[in-house]
Amino acid sequence: MVKKFQMREVKEFDPIEYYDKRIEEVQRDKDLNLIQKTMVTKYLETRKKMIMKLSVREKSNRQEAIRTKAGREKQSENKMI
After folding, report:
1. 19: Cα separation from own chain's centroid
2. Which residue ranges make up each domain of the chain?
3. Which helix (H) or strand (E) holds 32?
4. 80 falls in which pLDDT band (50, 70, 90)?
5. Alpha-carbon torsion 69, 74, 79, 81, what sign?
6. CA 78, CA 81: separation in Å to the nearest integer?
7. Longest dimension (CA), the chain
8. 48-69 confidence digits (pLDDT tens)
9. pLDDT, tens digit, for every residue of 13-22?
10. Burial of 15 (0-12, 13-18, 19+ CB in 10 A)
């Protein structure tokens, strides 16, 4: 007996979108009092800012790696000539 699995579409995890949704959920939650809401919201916002900084740094590191790789390839071509 062979089970057939249905392929599910896997979305790429976007942490910034996740934190936006969590902040909205916290604001709508009726069980939390105002102090709890502000503390949790501040925590989520700082986590979101940290991730945004990391993603910007990661992009610049990736671009720098591409530049250095291109520079190395050009140097090796010059040595061959």
Report:
1. 10
2. 14-55
3. none
4. low
5. positive
6. 5
7. 73
8. 999 888 888 888 888 888 888 7
9. 788 888 899 9
10. middle
